[in-house]
Write a structure and sequence with these properties.
This protein has 144 residues and is α+β, with helices and mostly antiparallel strands. The chain has one domain: Nucleoside Triphosphate Pyrophosphohydrolase, CATH 3.90.79.10. It is built from 3 helices and 7 strands, in the order ββββαβββαα. Strands 1, 2, 3, 4, 5, 6 and 7 form a 7-stranded mixed β-sheet that branches. Helix 2 packs antiparallel against helix 3. It is globular, with a radius of gyration of 15 Å.
Length: 144
């Protein structure tokens, strides 16, 4: 039995408010599925620094991390034997205004969508993504 390896990524459930409605930002990966922006840490970054950098690289945004929300997900990587992906997610808000333009990272992201909770919930392929979205939505509704 081989040793299990771990790959760690950090990202965030990114949202904005448009006409008092919460809209979640999802990125469509080159592989064709939707996810939250995320990626690997570089050069001793903290988890939050990694999440903010990856959001900026994938979407062009500079959101603000909200205090009090942090969830993790783990799943096996199908293309890497005995490797578990660990992803830490924060909750990040950006202001939908002229200063912040959505720009998809060309080599990784096909497109960026702003979706309601219901739309985002339906578009995900995995239950773990739905449960993370649900936790984020519940946090927002009860705290902000």
């Amino acid at each position: 039995m081989s040793d299990i390896k771990y790959e760690k990524s950090c990202g965030a459930i990114v949202f904005t408010r448009i006409n008092d409605e919460i809209k979640y930002l999802l990125v469509k990966q080159q592989a064709g599925f939707y996810s939250f922006p995320k990626g690997h840490a570089e050069n001793n970054e903290t988890e939050i620094e990694t999440a903010l950098r990856e959001i900026n690289e994938e979407t062009g945004l500079n959101p603000k991390i909200l205090d009090g929300f942090k969830v993790s997900d783990e799943y096996p990587l199908p293309d890497k034997e005995n490797t578990i992906k660990q992803v830490v997610y924060f909750l990040a808000e950006y202001q939908d205004n002229q200063d912040q333009k959505l720009v998809a990272q060309e080599d990784e992201i096909i497109k960026i969508d702003l979706l309601t909770y219901e739309e985002a919930f339906k578009i995900f392929n995995w239950d773990s993504q739905r449960s993370i979205l649900k936790a984020a939505n519940n946090f927002l509704l009860s705290n902000h």
